[in-house]
Input
Amino acid sequence: MRTRPRLPETSGPPRFGERPRRPAPPRGAAFWLVALAFAVTMLGTTLPTPLYVLYQHRLGFSTAMTTVIFAAYAVGVLTALVLFGRASDVVGRRRTLLPGLACAALSGLLFLGADNLPLLIAGRVLSGLSAGIFTGTATATLVDLADADDKERATLVATAANMGGLGAGPLLSGLLAQLAPMPLRLPFEVHLGMLTLVTVGVWLMPEPVKVTGQLRLSMTRPRVPEEARATFVRASIAGFAGFSVLGLFTAVAPSFLGHLLHLHNAALSGSVVCAVFAASAIGQVTLVRPLGPAALPVGCGLLIGGMALLIAGLAAGSLVLLVGAAVTAGLGQGVSFRAGLTAINAEAPSGQRAEIASTYFIVLYVAISLPVVGVGVMADVVGLRTAGIGFSVAVSLLASSALTALRRGRRER
Output
């Protein structure tokens, strides 16, 4: 019979001199409220994806500037990871989640009034801050709120909320932009309404950890101990390749469809990007465990296959091949990411596991931004098709080098 830890009472009159206590939902309901808040927050980070082409037409900026606007998101994420990585362990989960939701709401407000590039970039930085604050904290909160024998399920729910929200963002904004009026306003108004509802749920949730003090900003320096370094390098090469692909599809897929395939449809653009994240979630949840030690090599192989399909799709101007590339590369990204994180956690000393994982995520978010900016610059010089093909070749080489390193590591062991 399952038993849950007894929480402090949240009803009844306060004692003299005490603050009135907030009404708190049951622990099981709080779990799903946090999962919903996680999904809604991540939804906002990809919401502008199908709209970049519309902003480009309205404000007259280049493909390179589109990738810079997208990459500003990674600046926010990295800032949050470096400065607030341990915040929720000190001030509590709830007090960390609420500022993350506030950053998401401020980002939406900036996009609502965005009539110039600085506002778009500021909105993306705030969106990155919300994701950087929320991702680790929400995952930890779900694990804290779960029953003792349900920790694995909590991790799977966190993965589904994260990737599901990322995939739902472009799908929602693409459909609204294509079928409803005010394409550059309505998606953000809908998202702000969602944020309002989930903020109430997070504000009411019980605090699952003990608050130990006041937050002091301190920079987390990336470090990897020598005994885990070889595993970290192999996983990071594969992860870098996979997250570069996520960045490419999220930033440039609408341009591929519009400029190369002449398909100017926001709903279609959102669906293609959604397919990448959906495939990633399926790969993480369903394939990593059955594949076992073969997961990381299989993930690299799927990335190479996805890039081959992307090269063929760009060369032939084929929507079918482009969608096939999105699904195949998404599966490869999901499998290689989850397998790499699992391998790093297995090798890392227990006292440094969180620090090494944070370093891994820093590598991944550099990957999601810098290579994509390079594609944007190349597109303005040699054309979008050539830049996309060159990027695909580079990712294939990275994934191949990860496979070579994995084989060498097995021989050495």
Q: What stands out?
A: The longest helix spans residues 226-260. The chain is about 80% helix and 0% strand. Confidence is low (pLDDT under 50) at residues 1-19.
